[in-house]
Amino acid sequence: MSNFIVRSSYSICEPLNSVNTKDRSNDISLSEMSPKDAKFDKMKGASELLSEVLLGTDFDKWSERISSCADILKYYPHIDKETGEFLIKLVEVYFCHCRHCPVCDGRRSLRHMAMFRKSLPKILNDYPKARWVFMSLTVPNVPVDSLRDELRLMSKAWNKFAKRKEFKPVKGWIRKTEVTCEAKRKDYAHPHFHCFLMVSSSWFRGDNYTRQSRWSEIWGECMKLDTTPIVDVRAVKGTPDTAAVEVLKAFNYSVKPETLVNNREWMLEYFNQVHYLKFIASGGVLKNIFKSTEPETDESLIHVDGESEPSDDDAKVRVVFNWRTRDKQYRRFKKGDSGFSS
């Protein structure tokens, strides 16, 4: 796919190789114009690397789709009416929608956070005294070619775990599966659950209080393990809104991009093992918090911040950035740069 650059702040583009690229004194990066969008550089860079690793494999079609994902980002420039600050808002982009694409995975995480924040006011109104707890549940590492079976056992164990009397103070929960590659044995995987629990205030006192060591015993019993697994339990600090968002940020990737590209054989087997498996679940009063009647579309991954979309007239104005492999950044050319007509 050809690279493109912007002729002006409107969506008029032309191939990069058709202009003089030596004079880049006025070249502006997306991260410079909008620091909050600097994460796009990291996500796209990881996607580009993953695409290269997938070339010539059984996932060659994924390689092509991931390679073209989010090549061009189109933004609507505007002035914030409350602060007077100049801002740009993402309004148009092509996403590949591959499950393991770091760009799409990152946008899905933002979408989940937006869904949670939208539901939070009603949750706090219904349960004003609720507290929040972060819990990690681990199991012994397994060969990556048996990962699918292990994840199914973990899911069944969770169903037992959630029925234990110690779990009764939990009003609602969110569970995200994460898998990492073992450092010493390159063909082994480390699956674990990250859990976000909404609990009654009585969780922390009296007969309802359960020690961390006891949680390890309970999880080991549910998994039918010969050894006691590691379980991490901690209260989430801060306001519910702030704490929830910070915890959900940790739910970003099912498997970190660097894990995928650093061990090619492990990655390919991992893709086979987790095909069609769901890695995020919720229950209790949070059961339907991520439920959407609409299928995932480009628009659903664009408008994840809850802001209103620009009007048709405003949306005609575009600031366009294209991905530069050489720079590992999204950049644009302003009007008047070398090679452009006025």
Strand content: 15-25%
For the termini, the CA-CA separation is 27 Å
* Helix-residue proportion: 25-40%
Elements, N to C (H/E): EEEHHHEEHEEHEEHEHHHEHEE
Average pLDDT works out at 82
Structural class: alpha+beta
Helical element count?
10
Number of strands: 13
Spatial shape: globular
> Over the alpha carbons, how many angstroms does the gyration radius reach?
23 Å
Characterize the main sheet: 6 strands, antiparallel
Contiguous uncertain segments of 5+ residues: 1-25, 336-342
Can you walk me through this structure?
There is one protein chain. With 342 residues, the protein is an alpha+beta fold. Helices cover 33% and strands 23% of the residues. The protein has ten helices and 13 strands. Strands 6, 7, 8, 9, 10 and 11 form a six-stranded antiparallel β-sheet that branches. A hairpin with a 6-residue loop joins strand 4 (72-79) and strand 5. It is globular, with a radius of gyration of 23 Å. It starts with a strand and ends in a 10-residue tail after the last strand. Residues 1-25 and 336-342 have low confidence and may be disordered.
Features:
342 residues; alpha+beta; five-stranded antiparallel sheet; 10 helices; 13 strands; 23% strand; disordered N terminus; disordered C terminus
Chart the SSEs and their pairings.
Elements: E1 4-6, E2 13-15, E3 28-29, H1 30-33, H2 39-54, H3 60-68, E4 72-79, E5 86-92, H4 102-126, E6 131-138, E7 142-143, H5 147-161, E8 170-181, E9 188-199, H6 212-223, E10 231-235, H7 240-249, H8 257-262, H9 264-274, E11 280-284, H10 298-302, E12 319-324, E13 329-332
Antiparallel strand pairs: 1-2, 3-13, 4-5, 4-12, 6-9, 6-10, 7-9, 8-9, 8-11, 12-13
Helix pairs in contact: 2-3, 4-7, 5-6
